[in-house]
Amino acid sequence: MNAKVIDGKALSAEVLAEVTASVSEIQAQGLATPCLAVVLVGEDPASQVYVRNKLRQCEATGIRSVEHRLAADTSEATLLELLAKMNADPAIHGILVQLPLPAQIDEQKVIAAIDPAKDVDGFHPENMGRLLAGDESVLVPCTPLGCLLMLKHTLGDSLKGKHVVVVGRSNIVGKPAALLTLQQHCTVTIVHSRTQDIEAVCRQADILIVAVGRAEMVGADWVKPGAVVLDVGINRVERDGKAKLVGDVDYAAVASIASAITPVPGGVGPMTIACLLRNTLQAYQQQR
Ligand SMILES: Nc1nc2c(c(=O)[nH]1)N[C@@H](CN(C=O)c1ccc(C(=O)N[C@@H](CCC(=O)O)C(=O)O)cc1)CN2
Ligand SMILES: [Mg+2]
Prior knowledge:
Its EC number is 1.5.1.5, 3.5.4.9. Catalyzes the oxidation of 5,10-methylenetetrahydrofolate to 5,10-methenyltetrahydrofolate and then the hydrolysis of 5,10-methenyltetrahydrofolate to 10-formyltetrahydrofolate. InterPro entries: Aminoacid_DH-like_N_sf, NAD(P)-bd_dom_sf, THF_DH/CycHdrlase, THF_DH/CycHdrlase_cat_dom, THF_DH/CycHdrlase_CS, THF_DH/CycHdrlase_NAD-bd_dom. GO terms for molecular function: methenyltetrahydrofolate cyclohydrolase activity; methylenetetrahydrofolate dehydrogenase (NADP+) activity. By secondary structure, the chain is an alpha/beta fold. It folds into two domains: 87 residues, Leucine Dehydrogenase, chain A, domain 1 (Rossmann fold), CATH 3.40.50.10860; 128 residues, NAD(P)-binding Rossmann-like Domain (Rossmann fold, 3-Layer(aba) Sandwich). 41% of the residues lie in helices and 17% in strands. The chain is built from ten helices and eleven strands. Helix 2 links the parallel strand 2 and strand 3. Helix 1 packs parallel to helix 10 and helix 6 packs across helix 10. The structure holds the ligand Nc1nc2c(c(=O)[nH]1)N[C@@H](CN(C=O)c1ccc(C(=O)N[C@@H](CCC(=O)O)C(=O)O)cc1)CN2 and magnesium ion. The ligand Nc1nc2c(c(=O)[nH]1)N[C@@H](CN(C=O)c1ccc(C(=O)N[C@@H](CCC(=O)O)C(=O)O)cc1)CN2 binds next to helix 2, strand 4, helix 6 and helix 10.
């Protein structure tokens, strides 16, 4: 088998085009423009790239953006004060704090301080709880939402009843990906570092979603022939003396056995940013 490549760049362009059309319509009606506030603490190079891309996509879709760059030694209190101001500002509809945060700041405390209505990352405990309860109007985390859109695009109605195995149990990807596919009537298993015979469980999957952060961990012997494989990993490695970006899946090996697979780069990553803008529009519409 030679897997179909699920093109995250092409699909994210479709999502962004829909957002752009909706923003144009809002502007044509003379309404306030949707606005996203982005907070970056410190100088992590990857985070700087992601934030730059988020701001660039805001501009491309017509969404207004406000950027706050804070020094790496910013105190938790200062960040919480900024969030309180933005929560109270009716001209700001979405707020995101780029993760990871420096060690002196408690990530959970910061996430919980964002107004759930403006939480375009879908990380707030209230939004996580609503997702768990099956509330379909809730803001959901961007990466798992991107995965779901890719699965719907690839499988359509036949997504129902499929066995999804999610590798990784993070709050940001693994758990919400499991809940979102459960909501689509999939049979869902989460596996992780302590799972016994993890390869055998993964081999049962019709759909394998891998989000562990370990370069090329999933080989062909983890995958049932014909499975759909979504690779959420982004790992910077050195190969033949050159820097290279690889996923958590051994792409060449798994593409020869899967029916469809996401590449890295150009797979799930671009969908994350497109879904952020989609969520910003949703937050705006729900605040009107
Ligand atoms: N507040 C948040 N922080 C973080 C999130 C998040 O959703 N919200 N996710 C990740 C980082 N992230 C977005 O913030 C993100 C990561 C990767 C990509 C992406 O498009 N990747 C490209 C490769 C780019 C590269 O060269 O590194 C790809 O896969 O094609 C977009 C967004 C952690 N923090
Ligand atoms: Mg092996």
